Amino acid sequence: MKITPLLLAGALALTSGNLWAASGRQDSIDRLQMSSDVLRSIMSTPDKGIPDEVVKDAKCIVVVPHLVKGGFVVGGEHGRGIASCRTPEGWSAPAFVSVGGGSWGLQIGVEGVDLVMVVMNDRGLQHLLGDKFQLSGDASASAGPVGRHASAGTDWKMTTEVLTYSRSHGIFAGVTLDGAVVEQDTDSTRAIYGRDASFRSVLSGNVRPPQSTLSFMRVVGEIGRAGTLAEATPGQQ
C-alpha cells in the first residue's frame, strides 16, 4: 500500500486526537483526586475549616483545586474543578466546571490556592443547574464563616446563595470573589462521560457516576453523612 501525503496527514491527525483525548481524560482524573484531597481537608481541620452547619446544609459543593497553578489570576484566565449536589438518592455524579474572571478579596498571588464554593439554597442551586452564572451578579455570594461552628449572628442561612472559601497550606479562609463566571467544562465532561451531559442532568442525579469518579464520590459521601444523604453508587463506565 502506497502511503500518500493525505493518508499520512490523516493518520497523524487520528493519533494526535487519541493522544489529546487520553491526556484530557487523565487531567480530569487528576482533578478529581485533587478535589478529593481538598474535601478531606474540610473534615480534618474542623477548628480552622468550614463549619459543620455549612457543610450539613449545603445544596452543592464546588471545588476548584490549585487555582494559581492552573493560571487563575486577577482579571485573567480560569481554573477548573468539580461540583456535586445533593439529590433524594444521594450526592450527584461529579460535574466539571470552569471558573473565569472576577476579582479576589484575599490571597491573590499565593501559589496553590484552592477555591471552595458552597451553594446554600435553592436559588443558588438553580443558578448552578443553568450551566452558567456569575457570582455577585446572577447569584449572591459572600465570604463564608470559618471554624467548627458558624456564628449565630451571621445571616448566611437566610440570604446568601453561595459561600466562598480559599485554602492555602491547609487553612481555610472566607474569600470574596465578585464577578467570576462559573460554567460547564465541556471538554472534561466529554473526557469522563464519553458524551455531552448538561449540568442539570448530572447534578440532578440523572447521570450515573463513572467508575473513574469512585474515589471522589466516596469522599463526598463521607461529608454527606453529616447531613441526610447516603453515598452514591458508581456506575461501571
Characteristics:
7 helices; alpha+beta; 237 residues; 35% helix; two-stranded antiparallel ribbon; 10-stranded mixed β-sheet; disordered C terminus; single chain
Tell me the Rg in angstroms.
Answer: 19 Å
Ends distance: 38 Å
Which term fits the overall shape?
globular
Total number of domains: 1
Percent of residues in beta strands? 15-25%
Helix and strand pattern: HHEEEEEEHEEHEEEEHHH
General description of the model:
The chain has helices at residues 5-44, 52-57, 122-129, 156-159, 186-193, 199-203, 214-224, and strands at 60-64, 78-87, 90-91, 95-100, 103-104, 114-119, 132-134, 141-143, 162-168, 171-174, 177-178, 181-184. It contains 7 helices and 12 strands. The protein is of the alpha+beta class and 237 residues long. The protein starts with a helix and ends in a 13-residue tail after the last helix. Helix 1 crosses helix 5 and helix 1 (5-44) runs parallel beside helix 7 (214-224). The chain has one domain (22-224). The strands form 2 sheets. Strands 1, 2, 3, 4, 6, 7, 8, 9, 10 and 12 form a 10-stranded mixed β-sheet that branches. Helices cover 35% and strands 23% of the residues. Mean pLDDT is 74; it is low at 7-21, 69-77 and 227-237.
